[in-house]
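A quick aside before the break. I want you to see a complete sequence-to-structure record at least once, exactly as it would be stored in a machine-readable document. Don't worry about memorizing anything.
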Amino acid sequence: MNTGRPISVRRSTEYDVGAEISGSPVHICNVVVEFDDDGLFTGLPIRPSRRAHNGCAMAYDVELADRIRAALTEQPSVVEKKMFGGLQFMVAGKLTVGATVDGELLIKCDPARTEELETRPGAQRAAMRGRTMSNGWITVTSDGCAGDDLTFWIGVALDFRRQK
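That is the input. The structure line, written in tokens, reads:
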């Protein structure tokens, strides 16, 4: 969305908003928006802030979170926590799977399987703030976890948690 209207604010400003990204509703708090050199609004949202504010939720794909929640209904002691800029699901007290800021699925898997799992469509080693995470952390794009593929990825994460 580019309004093309001049707005007199500094180059980057934070606002509390709710928005829709790529057609999926997300919860966003403290979003950083940007303006070009002429002060024209260049779009919303650019990226969520790295901090939650006043109890607002961080950004995550609500639809993906609902699908994860539904897939975990038969698991004992599932707890949802807002962290890593998204909504993470802990099973039996251990981080297992989550919906990220970028609308991707984050899973914790057996570190020995990381390279094998990265060969699947949409999967890659997870990165946080530009740094690649250690083996055992994978993100999967929305295309890579569409339909029954989500069941596969959640199964991978749950299998690893059962080993621990």
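Two observations worth writing down. The longest strand covers residues 78-83. DSSP finds three helices and 13 strands in the chain. We'll return to this after the break.
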